[in-house]
Design goal:
Strand content: under 5%
Largest sheet: none
Number of helices: 18
Number of domains: 2
Order of helices and strands: HHHHHHHHHHHHHHHHHH
Low-confidence stretches: 1-6, 8-13
Distance between the termini: 78 Å
Structural class: mainly alpha
Length: 234
């Protein structure tokens, strides 16, 4: 079988990718493999006797393959791979979550340059600095909402609410979905958008129907909707 595969490799021009995929690569292919980060990682993973440091040097020219190298290659220099991976916020988050001996603070600093990954870091990485991640997440109403709602233990509800209420839609969602929300504060934020004021009155327990109606009915189309809503709530 191996002879057939070797023959097929020869017929295919013995491309390195083909040989790595089919387990035909040898030490003689290491120099070629180290010209591309992906192949350097795959070579270190699959070829017995590979020069791990040489392959690592090549893999660490790319943030993604630096992460994979640290996670899966025995003998990887974690700090070296981490240095590269932390140039990308998403990979800094994954590095902290998945790689043993990762420097949580270093990865967190990098991850928090992206609002979305600041949220995921706080939610999924043991030892995360919740306040630091929260500060980053609260730069965007969407992620402030998710920070408060989405399972981050120790989230500051009031701080997240303040940020979420900069957008009428997320003010509505905050009041609807987050335990401990200040209904009045969220409600006032929806008054800027007639549709959200109507949604608030319809969906949020404790909404001030009259005030929501006053805000929404600045647009004539909501007069009918509110009349119907009040009939349903009787």
């Amino acid at each position: 079988m191996m002879k057939l595969l070797a023959k097929s490799a020869e017929e295919a021009g013995q491309t390195l990718g083909y040989k790595l995929y089919n387990g035909l690569a040898t030490i003689a292919d290491e120099e070629e493999a180290c010209k591309k980060p992906k192949f350097a990682y795959e070579f270190a993973m699959s070829v017995k006797g590979a020069d791990i440091k040489r392959c690592e040097e090549a893999a660490c020219k790319n943030t993604e393959w630096a992460y994979y190298f640290a996670r899966y290659v025995k003998g990887a220099d974690i700090k070296r791979c981490e240095e590269t991976a932390c140039k990308n916020p998403g990979l800094a988050y994954l590095f902290a979550k998945d790689v043993k001996r990762a420097d949580i603070r270093k990865c967190e600093e990098a991850a928090c340059k992206n609002i979305e990954y600041a949220y995921y870091f706080a939610k999924n990485v043991k030892g995360a600095d919740i306040r630091k991640c929260e500060e980053a997440a609260c730069k965007d109403p969407k992620w402030a909402y998710w920070f408060a709602r989405g399972g981050v233990k120790g989230a500051d509800i009031k701080r997240c609410e303040e940020a979420a209420c900069k957008d009428p839609y997320f003010a509505y969602r905050f009041a609807k979905d987050v335990k401990g929300a200040d209904i009045r504060k969220c409600e006032e934020a929806t008054y800027k958008d007639p549709w959200m004021a109507y949604e608030f009155a319809r969906d949020v327990k404790g909404a001030d129907i009259k005030k929501c109606e006053e805000a929404a009915c600045r647009s004539p189309e909501y007069v009918y909707l509110f009349a119907r809503l009040k009939g349903e709530k009787k």
